[in-house]
Design brief:
The chain is mostly helical and about 475 residues long. It folds into three domains: about 1-40, no CATH class; about 50-315, Cytochrome Bc1 Complex, Chain C (Up-down Bundle); about 355-468, no CATH class. The protein contains 19 helices and two strands. The chain has helices spanning about 10-20, 30-40, 40-45, 55-60, 65-80, 90-100, 105-135, 140-165, 170-180, 190-195, 205-235, 260-285, 310-320, 325-340, 360-385, 390, 395-425, 430-450, 465; strands at about 50, 260. A two-stranded antiparallel sheet has the order 1-2. The protein is globular. Bound molecules: protoporphyrin IX containing FE.
């Protein structure tokens, strides 16, 4: 029903719907559906129909969506913080204190921003693992995996540049240690470090540079790549979860994929999940304050001076390898191998199966156990027994503490690969997965050792001694 002067429908519900939809409810035929897709924001982000099995929470664990939610929370709280923060050594620390006393909900907003940023590193990493272990990076999703690797690096860069902004002791020294890793880059290292820091040391220019990167360059790049990433998920569609026997998970043994409409099936789940997660993060932020130590003092270095937690694996590597290997060669090879991973040959039939196969699962457990046992042993051996530069004083340290241990490590990995392939009579795909698990768990163990088992002078000690 319409009236002559006002052609809009009488029914308020219908009017509200049309104001959002830009159109009346279209008829349920093909053209109507197409018109609805064209005029609907949600259906620009999602396809109009999705495969029902992909709605299963224990397939994606909501990790991509949670990463997106965190990016949104970070943008909102970040803009709020910009109103009360000036990136200058004279004011930055005081601004942090003012947030606690002068600004309504200031501390809560800072807590939300701080914890969401740290959580995003963990969530993006877990999302990467989920994609790897379910084979979600295979054709046609290889390029989206590369976009994902770029996102992970940007997320770490965003965290690192934000770390400095409170201008307390923690910030100042973590950035001093973290940025010193750059100077090991041959030829351009020192120049690049000076360029990023705005001088040879962390100072006022560093704060301005990091602020610019943190609030403009990195978020804009991140948003651009996130949009591209989500658009590719829409175009490539999500991989379909399968059981060990290859049947589609959630389809009673069938091979036909049932489709359901995105509205309401997917969107309702996304809204509930986003609300629950926002609530949980809010509760955590109310309960746990973001750390703030004494104001930055360039003349007094804490002992030990540690990098941010997500760089502690690298800092630990540096204690065992020549810096060119610990800070440059090993991380660069790791990132390159990660980015190029989807272009390796994989069993396509295993797409959507957690850990590829039953054998794949067993081999993944062996990989994890090997790293859990071998890495602490190597660390202890290197700390108390092995002293390669001391044992081979005639060799330059880049050989005795770089090329030699690196070659030994490579040989061990090749031996592990070959041994596992023969022992389990496994495919290359299952064996590579086991090596991947070994390397990921090794990196996590190194990070934990760096965070919890390194105390004064970066000596090995128990966590309670580190804390005391
Ligand atoms: C800011 C970080 C990121 C955001 C916001 C994000 C967002 C998303 C979303 C919403 C999905 C669909 C739902 C899901 O699979 O959970 C997705 C899928 C995907 N993501 Fe990400 N992602 C991020 C980081 C990454 C990383 C680090 C990688 C891997 C290196 C990655 C690779 C992929 C791939 C290949 C898919 C398709 C998976 C499939 O079809 O099974 N993403 N991402």
């Amino acid at each position: 029903m319409t009236n002559e002067l006002d052609p809009r429908p009488e029914d308020l519900k219908q009017r509200v719907w049309e104001s959002i939809q830009r159109d009346e409810l279209p008829p349920r035929d093909d053209r109507g559906r197409m018109r609805m897709v064209m005029n609907n924001l949600v259906l620009h982000l999602h396809p109009s129909k999705v495969a029902k099995p992909t709605l299963k929470f224990t397939y994606t664990w909501g990790l991509g969506g949670l990463a997106l939610l965190l990016v949104m929370l970070l943008s909102i709280t970040g803009v709020m913080l910009m109103f009360v923060y000036t990136p200058s050594p004279q004011t930055a620390y005081q601004d942090m204190l003012n947030l606690q006393t002068e600004v309504w909900f200031g501390q809560l907003i800072r807590n939300l921003h701080h914890w969401s940023g740290n959580l995003l590193v963990i969530v993006a990493f877990l999302h990467l693992l989920r994609i790897f272990f379910t084979g979600g990076f295979r054709t046609p999703r290889e390029f989206n995996w590369i976009l994902g690797v770029a996102l992970l690096l940007l997320v770490i860069a965003a965290n690192f540049t934000g770390y400095l902004l409170p201008w307390d002791q923690l910030a100042y020294w973590a950035v001093t240690v973290g940025s010193s890793l750059l100077s090991y880059l041959p030829v351009i290292g020192e120049g690049l470090r000076n360029f990023l820091l705005g001088g040879p040391e962390v100072g006022a220019a560093t704060l301005t540079n990091f602020y610019g990167m943190h609030v403009a360059i990195i978020p804009l790049t991140l948003m651009g790549i996130v949009s591209f990433h989500i658009w590719r998920v829409r175009k490539d569609t999500l991989s379909i979860p399968r059981k060990l026997d290859g049947s589609i998970d959630g389809s009673d043994g069938g091979t036909q994929v049932e489709k359901v409409t995105t509205l309401p099936h997917l969107v309702s789940r996304e809204v509930v999940f986003a609300l629950l997660m926002t609530g949980a993060i809010l509760l955590w932020a109310v309960w746990m304050n973001a750390p703030l130590e004494a104001a930055a003092n360039p003349d007094h270095s804490p002992n030990p001076a540690k990098a941010a937690w997500y760089f502690m694996g690298l800092q630990e590597l540096l204690l065992h390898f020549h810096p060119v290997f610990g800070a440059i060669i090993i991380p660069t090879l790791g990132i390159a191998a990660l980015a190029l991973l989807p272009y390796q040959r994989f069993d396509l039939s295993a797409e959507g199966v957690w850990f590829r196969s039953r054998k794949g699962r067993q081999m993944a457990i062996v990989g994890a156990l090997t790293a859990l046992i071998a890495v602490p042993l190597f660390v202890i051996l290197d700390e108390y027994v092995l002293d390669l530069p001391g044992m081979l004083p005639s060799l330059p340290t880049i050989i005795s503490n770089g090329w030699l241990p690196f070659a030994a490590l490579l040989l061990l990995l090749i031996g592990y690969y070959d041994g596992m392939k023969r022992l389990f009579k496994a495919t290359a795909c299952e064996t590579r997965q086991s090596v991947f698990v070994l390397l990921v768990v090794a990196f996590v163990v190194l990070t934990v050792i760096g965070i919890a088992f390194r105390g004064e002078g970066m000596a090995l000690m128990f966590p309670w001694e580190v804390l005391s």
